[in-house]
Amino acid sequence: MAHQKITMEDVRHVARLSRLALDDVQLQKFATQLETILGYVDKLGALDVSGIEPMAHALPLHNVLREDVIEPSLPLEQVLRNAPQTDGPFFKVPKVIGGDEDSAG
Questions:
Q1: What is the rounded CA–CA span in Å between residue 23 and residue 30?
Q2: Angle at 100 between CA 94 and CA 101, to 5 degrees
Q3: Alpha-carbon distance 34 to 40, whole Å?
Q4: Alpha-carbon distance 92 to 104, whole Å?
């Protein structure tokens, strides 16, 4: 499963598509690095993986969330004690959207 050699023109083309300005030294460096990466991919492609089950993760994943259990809510008075300002049974917060024309009062 041999790959084609990465040319400077290939790297220049990818750099242009990526909007990267690379000089010839950088182009040569990346061409060499890409060659090395593709060499490793070739090694992986040569392995017999016919008996190996495909997986999405190297480690088994388990849901770490707790069960959703309905419990009684805090009393309204206790909740509103944490608010800097209230308006009846509501939290009062500074206006963040709109101008004076959106004000009701």
A1: 11
A2: 125
A3: 10
A4: 14
Token pair for 7: 């040319």
- The whole-angstrom separation of Cα 85 and Cα 90 is 9
What's the full length of the chain, in residues? 105
Tokens standing for 26?
């950088």
Cβ count within 10 A of residue 20: 13
Q: How many CB atoms lie within 10 A of CB 14?
A: 15
* pLDDT tens-digit series, residues 78-103: 999 989 999 999 999 988 887 666 55
Taking only the tens place, the pLDDT of each residue in 32-76 is 999 999 999 999 889 998 988 888 888 888 877 888 899 999 999
Model confidence, pTM: 0.47
If you ran DSSP here, which 8-state letter would residue 71 be given?
Answer: -
Q: What is the CA radius of gyration of the chain?
A: 30
